[in-house]
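Example record

Each entry pairs one chain with its bound ligand, FE2/S2 (inorganic) cluster.
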Amino acid sequence: MKIRLQVNGRAEQVEIEPREVLLDVLRDRLFLTGTKDGCREGECGACTVLVEGRPVASCLYPGGSAHGRSVETIEGIGGETLSPLQNALLETGGVQCGFCTPGIVMTLTALLRAESDPSVDRIREALSGNLCRCTGYAAIVRAARQAVGCREQGGPS
Ligand code: FES
Ligand code: FES
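Structure tokens for the complex follow.
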């Protein structure tokens, strides 16, 4: 089947198998390998992308359902430079092995777009579907708060 979708603002047309999931469309058809393939069961969040601005587990999201929709992946975040959130993750030590990081960036990007000043509890709640085995989460939560601070001081969002 043929699907048409927007990926990081660019129109794409892809021929896929009917049972193919969005994760495979992105990684294997469009070669956007920043989205990670972890559990393939909706448990780890490594494959998180935004569909119409909302975080989804792309390993469970049918590729055909992406037809006509807008998808954002880690490749679309930050442009030529890193986003304030990505910089904050680096500064706080919120990136270690990095496998979880693309999914975490997508989840937190959606949160920070939707909420101007999310609390620590709210950030932790948003991250409940993203597993990180390395950092213990504290540095990731600090990074999200630091990105809020950057925005409040008039920096880029
Ligand atoms: S690979 Fe999709 S949630 Fe783990
Ligand atoms: S930094 Fe290694 S899993 Fe999160």
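The mean pLDDT is 95.
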